[in-house]
Every structure is written in structure tokens, then in C-alpha cells.
Amino acid sequence: MNQTATIPGDQGLTDEALDLQRRARNYVEDVLIPLEQEAELLHGRLPEETIRLVKERALAAGLTGGLHKSENGGQGWSKTEWFLVEEQLGRSTNAISWHIPNGYNVWDLAAEKHVEKWLKPLLRGEARDAYAVTERGAGSDPSGIETTAVRTEGGFRINGEKWFVTSGDVADVLVVMANLDEGGELLPTLFVVDKSLGGVETIEDPGFTHSYPDGHPTIRFEDVEVEEDDVIGGVGGGDEVQKAWFAEERLGIAARGIGSMWRLLEETVEWAVTREQGGSRIIDYQGVSFPLADSATDAAAGRLLTLEVARLIDAGADPKVCHNKASMAKLFVSEAAWRCADRCVQIFGGRGYRRDNVAERFLRELRVDRIWEGTSEIQRLIIARGLEKRGVEALIQ
User: Fold this and answer.
1) What is the C-alpha to C-alpha distance for residues 259 and 256, in angstroms, rounded to an integer?
2) Confidence of residue 12 (pLDDT cuts 50, 70, 90)
3) Single residue among 202, 236, 270 that ends a domain in this structure
4) Is 3 within a domain?
């Protein structure tokens, strides 16, 4: 592996951004990748002492809370700088990077008491959060959410059930989307819910294809009482806040997918140029070299698209156009990365079907990127609506 690889400086990146990329690269190579096999054997659940090491090394490298304000314990990165780090984190399997202290972007809109009680501890690695939006009948389309909130004398009472609450099994605090019933009008609102409150119950914690550190449980909220200021983004502001969250999550999926392809291509090309069959290196056969060429082209194209979206956001471009373009990046890269993993498994042959092989792990892990934070079909709908409302030129230039 090329541990000195960087993005060419002629793309306009600052020395600080390139240094950040190198720090992230070194962290992935020195800390995360050596733990992949252990994590796989333990179904993603590493020992506490190892998790502590992952956190400490991330804190020392300045890789925690990247997009959050420095006064709250974050790094204050631009979206472009964040892209550079997420791309490197995508090079490692088993999502060990989930242990890097961080918090959802919505905390920046929370009341000061929540910044002190939750965000700052999250960024120090002393707490964990989870975002609860999906339901039995409301997945990629959040308009079908049935979880409700009603006003009480001291705040609000929440009732409902959330599915696929990533990290909900280990979280200390939940950000919950619910419809506040105001005289028959339903106002989508985000609530802060301390998981230790009465009425919060995990009713199912199923296994999934990948071997990740955290689960995606189903959580029920039954007469959960929260206070008046346990609201993020204001009453009725849930949809707008969530659009920004979705755009960021989709951009992150694209960035990490590019990193996955980067790693897959490195390891598979190395294998293909050294493995011989029939008296020739297998890379000399078009059945091997052409799929690699296609995946390299996908990775380069996806990288340019995703990096451009990050730069547009930094430049203050129209948020709606950025939202559409984030969907384009997520759609293209998530589909391309899984194709790349599938091709690499084939090139490794029987070795590619072993769980100690990077291509096998990525084949299982990358499949969900075409589903969560909006399926590929939902991304196509968003892009098509963007073409209709904002025009072709806005989306492709």
C-alpha cells in the first residue's frame, strides 16, 4: 500500500487540507486496518481496551468531531476537509471508525444545555448518540412517520416505534423525529430523548449482514416525557433540519465508498500482477484487467463528483442544488463501489470468498449503502425532481 498517497496539490487544496488527509491516512493504516481481522472474528464487537485505543489515537490525531465548532470540542473543518477524512476512513472494513468520537450535525441547533450535556461529551468520546427516524411504514419517505408527540404541562409526551436505529443499542441519547399534534396539524419535530428515561424500550435487536460495532435495533417510545426545550431546530422544523442531515449523510456515504474502491483496487491489482495462471499474470487477461479498468474509472469519476459537491457546499451554493448533487454522488458511488467489490471477489477467486479477504468484507458491507439514508430508487427520484425544478444545467455543471 502507498502510505504517502495524497491528492495532487494542483486541485487547489491547502497545505492544511493535505496534512489532514495524511493524518487520516496514517490513522487508518496504523490503527484501523490492523484491527479488521480481530473485529471480523468478534462480529464487530472489539474489547473495551481496544475501543479506548481507537478513541485515544483519533483524539491525538485531531480526527474527532470534524464538522463541529472548535469551541464545542470539534475541529471546524470545511466540507472539503471532511470529505478527505471520510474518504480515508472508507478504506477500512468493519466500521471500526464508528468508535471515533463524534455527534450528529443536528446538535449544532440544540439548546445550550444539550451542547453541554450531550455534544461536548460526545466529542470527547464519553457518550454515544443515535438518530431515530425510520419506522415500519416510513423508510426512505419520512412523510409516513407515525410517531407522535403531544404537549404536556411541562413539555411533550412521545409515543411511537422506530426501526433500524443505528447505534441505538449503545447510545446514551437519541434524536427522535416525531409529528407534534398541534390542534390536528402535524408538525415534524426533532426531540432529544435521554435513553435512560422511562418508556424507552428496545424491542428487537436483529443481526445484519455486516460485522459492525453497533446494532440497528427497533426502539419503542411509550409515553416518554421530555421537556419544553428538548427540541432541535424548533417546533415544526424537523423536515428542514433532516434534509441537511440527509445531504451530509449521503455525501459521507459517497466519500467512504470512494475510499472503499481505493482500497479494493490497491489490493486486487497487487494480487492480479503477482498471481499467475496458464503461464501469465492474471492481469494480462482481459477478463481481469477490464473489470479493474472499469472500477478505476468509476472511482475517479465518483471522486470528482463527490469532491465537487463538497466544494459547492463550502462556497455557499444553493442548498437545494447541493441536496440534489449529494443524491447524485450517493447514487453513483454506492452502486459503483458494490460493483467494484463484486468484481474484486471474482478476481481473487476462492480466496475472495474468505472472510479474511478485504473484498469479501466489503461485498457484505457496501451493499447497505444502496439502501440506508435513502435507497438508490429514492435518490433517482430526488435527482429527477431536481432536473424538473432546477433545470439540467444546474445539476450537471
Assistant:
1) 5
2) confident
3) 236
4) no
Are residues 389 and 295 part of one domain?
yes
Residue pair 118/173 in contact by the 8 Å Cβ criterion: yes
Question: Do 260 and 227 lie in a common domain?
Answer: no
Q: Write out pLDDT tens, residues 295-347.
A: 999 999 999 999 999 999 999 999 999 999 999 999 999 999 999 999 999 99
- In the three-class reduction of DSSP (H, G, I as helix; E, B as strand; rest coil), residue 101 is classed as coil
Please state the domain count of the chain.
3
Sign of CA pseudo-dihedral 140, 145, 147, 150: positive
Statement to judge: residues 203 and 268 lie in one domain: no
Angstrom distances, CA of residue 78 to CA of 312, 316, 336, 343, 363:
11, 11, 26, 34, 31
DSSP for 107-174 reads GGGS-HHHIIIIIHHHHHTS--EEEE--BTTBSS-GGG---EEEE-SSEEEEEEEE---TTTTT-SEE
The amino acid present at 321, given as its one-letter code, is: V
Note the pLDDT of residue 142: 66
Q: Express each pLDDT in 196-211 by its tens digit.
A: 999 999 999 999 999 9
Q: Give the global pTM.
A: 0.94
Task: Tell me what pLDDT residue 143 has.
Answer: 73
Look up cell 469519476; give the residue.
301
CA 65 – CA 74 distance, rounded (Å): 4
Q: Do 254 and 381 fall into the same domain?
A: yes
* pLDDT tens, position by position, 359-382: 999 999 999 999 999 999 999 999
User: Are the C-beta atoms of residues 283 and 111 closer than 8 Å to each other?
Assistant: no
Which positions ≥6 away from 122 have C-beta within 8 Å?
65, 101, 102, 103, 107, 128, 129
- What CATH number does the domain containing 180 carry? 2.40.110.10
How far apart CA 333 and CA 113 sit, in angstroms, is 38
Segments forming the whole domain that contains residue 251: 239-396
Q: Which residues contact 353 (CB under 8 A, 6 or more apart)?
A: 345, 360
Residue 155 host element (H or E): strand 155-162
61 assigned to some structural domain? yes
CB 390, CB 320: distance < 8 Å: yes
Cα–Cα dist 215/241, whole Å = 25
| Residue 2 lies inside a defined structural domain of this protein | no
C-alpha cell at 354: 474468505
Burial per residue of 20-40, b for 16 or more beta-carbon CB atoms within 10 angstroms, e otherwise: bbbbbbebbbebbbebbeebb
- Residues pairing with 218 in the sheet: 204
Number of Cβ within a 10 Å radius of residue 284: 14
